[in-house]
Write a structure and sequence with these properties.
Blueprint lengths: L1 H14 L1 H39 L37 E2 L30 E4 L5 H6 L5 E5 L8 E4 L2 E3 L4 E2 L2 E6 L4 E5 L2 E5 L1 H5 L1
Parallel strand pairs: 2-9
Antiparallel strand pairs: 1-2, 3-4, 4-5, 6-7, 7-8, 8-9
Helix pairs in contact: 1-2
Length: 203
């Protein structure tokens, strides 16, 4: 169809010079529109390729080394359970002694090895306030509790002793508050963990 149309347009141009001039101008405009369209399409494709290259996500680098895990530590005095075994009565109880670190091996002859001095005994004796030894009880400061707040969340627990608000870990007159229990407090004095039944004293 296009060939027939071109032949008809050429024949008409030969018969009419004005139509020939209009045909030439029309073809120039069509060529220019095609050139502009091709240029715009090429620019759009180039911009799309550039944006795709800039915004393409890079693969995350793999971690070369795993982070070291924290070393396990033994239970603190604040984590000591307060319950006694069935059938037993409250009284002095000795906490389990922490395992001593292994001594480093040495290649020196046995005759030249000097025994290391024994570490001081740091075991804590758990007891009630009324069952403290007499001399220790005389040194134990007098604590007057006026408020006792217990909650499952340890950060909300508090007591007021001698007019001062205390939370777990605070100290007063040489006594450290290790734990606030549902019925009282567990404090550390010298080498003793002493249970003080605060609520029982109020009753």
């Amino acid at each position: 169809m296009s060939y027939i149309l071109d032949a008809l347009q050429r024949r008409e141009a030969q018969q009419n010079p004005e139509a020939a001039a209009a045909l030439i101008i029309k073809r120039h405009k069509e060529q220019r529109f095609r050139l502009i369209g091709t240029t715009v399409a090429a620019a759009l494709i180039a911009n799309a390729a550039l944006l795709l290259w800039l915004w393409w996500p890079e693969p995350a680098p793999e971690s070369a080394h795993a982070s070291p895990t924290a070393e396990a530590v033994g239970p603190s005095p604040a984590q000591i359970p307060l319950e006694y075994p069935p059938g037993s009565t409250p009284g002095p109880a000795r906490l389990p002694r922490a395992p001593e670190p292994a001594k480093a091996a040495t290649a020196a002859p046995a005759a030249t090895i000097t025994p290391a001095p024994k570490a001081a005994d740091t075991r804590l004796v758990r007891t009630l306030l009324d069952t403290l030894p007499k001399d220790v009880k005389e040194r134990f400061p007098g604590l007057a509790f006026s408020t006792h707040i217990y909650a499952e969340d340890a950060s909300l627990r508090a007591v007021v002793a001698n007019g001062r608000r205390l939370t777990e870990g605070d100290s007063i007159q040489g006594v450290r508050l290790e734990r606030i229990t549902a019925t009282g407090a567990l404090v550390r004095f010298e080498n003793y963990l002493v249970e003080i039944p605060v609520i029982a004293d109020w009753q």
